[in-house]
Design a protein that fits this description.
- The protein is of the alpha/beta class.
- It has 4 domains: 247 residues, Metal-dependent hydrolases (TIM Barrel), CATH 3.20.20.140; 190 residues, no CATH class; 178 residues, Glycogen Phosphorylase B (Rossmann fold), CATH 3.40.50.2000; 164 residues, Rossmann fold (3-Layer(aba) Sandwich), CATH 3.40.50.2000.
- The protein is 46% helix and 12% strand.
- It contains 39 helices and 25 strands.
- An 8-stranded mixed sheet has the order 1-13-12-11-16-17-18-19, with helices on one face. Strands 22-21-20-23-24-25 form a 6-stranded parallel sheet, with helices on both faces.
- It is elongated and about 115 Å long.
- The C terminus is likely disordered.
- InterPro entries: Glyco_trans_1, Glyco_trans_4-like_N, Glycosyltransferase_grp1, Pol/histidinol_Pase-like.
- This is Glycosyl transferase family 1.
């Protein structure tokens, strides 16, 4: 269950599309007298669509559907279709079989034609041809021009289906293609039941914008004669509809009304197919039906995947290797086929897939099944019954019922998986989380190059993750895991299919000047509410987004947090702590719930700021919606494992390669210092320079009402003149805190009165207290308490070589506290040596500069003033403006008015030691 976003700006992109298309359908319904109309679904398929256009389907030898002709026809009739056609790919076998059996049918097929200059295959719905003409059409389809000229010469009507959807991504496709289509086609499918609303509305507005003058100009520009394709530029384009159904679930629910004058009298002597062909040629057509975004396609793919799981046959390894397609296509097909073939050995899983298929078709599971299944799975049966009931008794709510039921089923199964894992851990049936270490995990990541070792093991070391027995692995695969994967896969595939040419859709919308997708980013993070520097910077970014109502919304997974403006909260499916790393809370979100939020919110790009579960979610959304994704790099993990583990260089390189693979999946990486930018674009990580953006955290204003802490409140006997160091951070080894005892001891040789105050908590707190018994530990401090400490103490000491930025340095500067730090990464981009602080190389240097600072009181006040000046360089407006620009988002008017005359400070060179 999610806590809904409370936002000032409600996304209206989807709502505007729905309203625009609904108005069009209402007007179409009023065009003709229903008594003089035939009802037909111009676009549907059955089992004779046995050679799919999708490459993977051909490699795996999968038909597009197993739907029998009889079942399809009965569904069309049940949905009120008075004229029938079946448009299988590149053949009319089903139509000929129906005609041979005495059934009246409009002969049709969906031919795949080749557009040579674009290296593109497009579909053309074709009707009313003879058997001999079908042979010629199949020969002519190797060239779209020859095909359409022949159809025009033979008076064979054609329709261009889903004009904005192509079965491939192709850099050659541009707007000139659509100029040619406008010249070559008279009829266009503007309503396709399996395509999304955005494509349909774009198609509608494009066709309605085509004037005779435009078409004539396009013809001249491309040296095409409209008459040779049977096109009259002076006539408006004819708009049609069809279900594009492959499963028999939605056949006939979308389609076209065909106006035939004096229809009832003519039906006494003429066949519906003949009258339908006449109306099609004349263009007396009005589309009808409902478009449900990706929901219909999701249901169809779920039904298809359920059948694939039970019906797939071994495609053969040699056949896969020799088939046309890239190496990755073949590897993917090999993996999919092996997983599905192994799944067929699991009777429980196969039965469930059969039940899913039956339920989607309106058939309930056997009543006895409820008594046979375990308590954990009764919920699954209840959801399938709910779907079957909606199909039979409440068809208008069927789509919403299926998608809601599948969503709840996905959540239930994942909660069940988490519960079983927790039970196994608690009962010592599994490996305790505390036993995992970075070293162990890293050393087990390598996969052997020998296939026998990979699949069969070497018979010696069974504890190595490389020695995987595939048979045993599949035997142990859990039923809920398999079903969850199928549910998530159908959702991903249905949406990915619709948006695989998103760039083209954006370009098309820009060309039309309307229906442009909203530009909004969803920012995923695991650490917004943690008590560390990253959460502090993220909270500051969220406040700035809320204040200026920017086109970015945060999303976190948390069991207690509540939604705010620009903040989504989803509840975790499971959560656990990794105590080895400082009680770090790991929360597992519902990936499909986040996908629904992304879709409903009108987002078109992703930002992710953590490498944990949210990184997986980000990559899932990236693939699902085909949107740009960005990663905000807060942590240097290579440096982390260097300081907290005993991994050698080779093992650290293994982690680095994994990080490189992860970061390369994103379109852009935001970094917080020059060193990281150079590292990511250097030979070790090899990211493109254009892919890496330098950014910074911004400061928060100083609270002028805040009073400085009195030193004697913290340190008994202290006075205003007592030299006091201050540090605020997470107390853990990688922060360099164990340098502090040596630093303070060396400095006290010349400053015996030197004191230190330490704020924060973490896994190394007790150990540090033992090493520094005379230090003052104040624990975790809130924002106001920290401000008082910054204002009342003297010098901030920052011994970390790990931090990528150093928020606490800026916090100290805001309150006029100079800082001493090592000359590395983040600090050296912020601190100006001997101006507002010191940059040193080692412990001795740090101790010496501390002594210098307290022995030159005349310089202290100047450094405090210059620290405040430096903090002013990190104002929110220019930093956030550049951040928006790098994300490809528009800046709000308030930012444009406040635009700085100079570039952001983090792009300037710094003066360092």
């Amino acid at each position: 269950m999610s806590v809904h976003l409370l936002s000032k700006t409600k996304p209206e992109f989807r709502q505007s599309l729905e309203q625009e298309f609904a108005t069009f359908i209402e007007l179409q319904a009023q065009r003709f007298n229903p008594n003089n109309c035939l009802k037909i679904d111009f676009h549907c398929h059955d089992h004779n669509s046995d050679v799919p256009d999708e490459l993977w389907g051909r490699i795996l030898r999968l038909p597009e559907t197993w739907l029998k002709t009889k079942k399809l026809v009965s569904t069309l009739v049940a949905n009120g279709n008075s004229a029938l056609t079946i448009t299988n790919h590149n053949n009319a076998r089903s139509c000929w079989e129906l005609k041979d059996s005495g059934q009246d049918v409009l002969v049709g097929a969906e031919f795949t034609c080749y557009f040579p200059e674009y290296e593109l295959f497009i579909h053309v719905l074709t009707y009313g041809f003879s058997r001999d003409q079908e042979v010629v059409l199949n020969k002519k389809r190797q060239n779209i021009y020859d095909f359409l000229r022949y159809a025009a010469d033979e008076d064979i009507p054609v329709i261009l289906p889903h004009p904005l959807y192509f079965y491939t991504r192709n850099d050659l496709i541009d707007l000139s293609l659509f100029e040619k289509l406008a010249v070559m086609f008279s009829r266009f499918e503007v309503l396709n039941g399996q395509r999304d609303l955005w494509q349909s509305v774009l198609t509608l507005n494009w066709l309605q914008s085509l004037t005779p003058e435009k078409i004539t100009e396009y013809a001249r520009r491309h040296n095409l004669n409209p008459a040779t394709f049977g096109v009259d530029p002076k006539q408006p384009k004819v708009l049609t509809g069809g279900s594009d159904d492959h499963t028999g679930i939605f056949a006939g629910q979308c389609g076209s009304w065909l106006y035939v004058p004096n229809l009832q009298e003519r039906l006494k002597t003429e066949k519906p197919s003949e009258l339908a062909l006449e109306a099609l040629k004349k263009g007396n057509i009005a589309p009808f039906g409902q478009i449900a975004e990706n929901q219909k396609l999701n249901i169809s793919l779920l039904d298809y995947f359920s059948q694939v799981a039970t019906k797939i046959k071994d495609p053969g390894l040699l056949r896969i290797l020799l088939h046309r397609g890239s190496t990755w296509d073949k590897i993917g097909c090999f993996a999919v086929s092996n997983v599905l073939l192994e799944m067929q050995k699991h009777k429980k899983t196969m039965k469930f897939f059969s039940f899913v298929h039956d339920a989607l078709q309106g058939k309930k599971p056997n009543k006895l099944l409820k008594w046979q299944v375990s308590k954990d799975y009764k919920f699954c049966i209840a959801q399938l019954e709910r779907i079957a009931d909606a199909k039979r008794n409440n068809p208008e709510s069927y789509i919403d019922t299926v998608n809601t039921a599948m969503s709840e089923l996905f959540t239930h199964l994942n909660q069940l998986i988490a519960k079983r894992i927790a039970c196994a851990i608690n009962s010592n049936q599994g490996v305790l989380l505390e036993s995992f270490s970075t070293e162990e995990l890293t050393r087990k990541l390598e996969i052997p190059s020998q296939l026998t070792a990979l699949f069969l093991g070497d018979g010696k070391r069974q504890d190595n993750m490389s020695n995987v027995n595939m048979g045993k692995l599949f035997d142990n695969l859990s039923f809920p895991v398999l079903i969850s994967v199928i549910l998530a896969g159908s959702n991903l595939a249905s949406t990915r299919v619709l948006y695989q040419n998103r760039d083209l859709l954006n370009q098309f919308a820009q060309h039309l000047g309307k229906n442009q997708h909203s530009k909004r980013a969803l920012y995923l993070t695991d650490t917004l509410l943690d008590k560390n520097g990253v959460s502090t910077s993220l909270s500051g970014k969220l406040r700035e987004i809320q204040k200026s109502d920017l086109a970015i919304d945060f999303l976190i997974c948390h069991s207690e947090a509540q939604a705010e403006p620009h903040l989504h909260v989803v509840r975790p499916i499971a959560e656990f702590e990794v105590q080895r790393y400082g009680e770090q809370q790991i929360r597992i979100p519902d990936i499909m719930e986040i996908a629904r939020i992304f879709y409903a919110g009108g987002y078109d790009r992703i930002v992710c700021s953590t490498e944990g579960p949210m990184a997986v979610v980000a990559l899932f959304l990236q693939q699902m919606f085909n949107v740009p994704s960005f990663f905000f790099m807060h942590t240097d993990w290579i440096d982390f494992i260097k300081h907290t583990t005993d991994l050698n260089q080779f093992e650290r390189d293994r982690v680095r390669r994994l990080m490189r693979a992860l970061y390369n999946r994103f379109d852009g990486i935001f970094v917080l210092n020059q060193e990281h930018k150079a590292w990511l674009t250097g030979h070790e990580m090899q990211l493109n320079k254009e892919q890496v953006f330098l950014t910074a955290h911004h400061t928060q204003p100083c609270d002028t009402q805040m009073q400085p802490v009195h030193k004697d409140v913290l340190i008994p006997g202290a006075t205003d003149l007592t030299p006091v160091l201050f540090i605020a951070c997470r107390i853990s080894q990688e922060k360099g805190i164990f340098d502090l005892p040596k630093i303070v001891a060396l400095a006290r040789q010349r400053l015996p009165e030197l004191k230190i105050v330490i704020a924060g908590d973490g896994p190394a707190t007790e150990k540090l207290k033992q090493k520094m018994p005379d230090a003052t530990f104040v624990g975790w401090q809130n924002k106001k308490q920290l401000a008082s400490l910054y204002l009342g103490l003297d010098l901030f000491v920052f011994p970390s070589r790990f931090d990528t930025f150093g928020n606490v340095i800026l916090e100290a500067f805001v309150h006029g506290m100079p800082t001493i730090a090592y000359n590395c990464k983040g600090p050296k981009d912020i601190i100006q040596h001997e101006v507002n602080g010191y940059l040193v190389d080692d412990i001795d240097g740090m101790a010496a500069r501390i002594v210098e600072f307290f022995n030159t009181p005349e310089k202290q006040q100047l450094m405090r003033q210059q620290a405040r000046q430096r903090a002013a360089d990190y104002q929110a407006e220019p930093i956030m403006q550049q951040f928006l620009s790098d994300l490809g988002l528009d800046s709000p008017s308030v930012y444009k008015q406040q635009k700085s005359e100079r570039p952001p400070v983090y792009n300037q060179q710094k003066t360092v030691a």
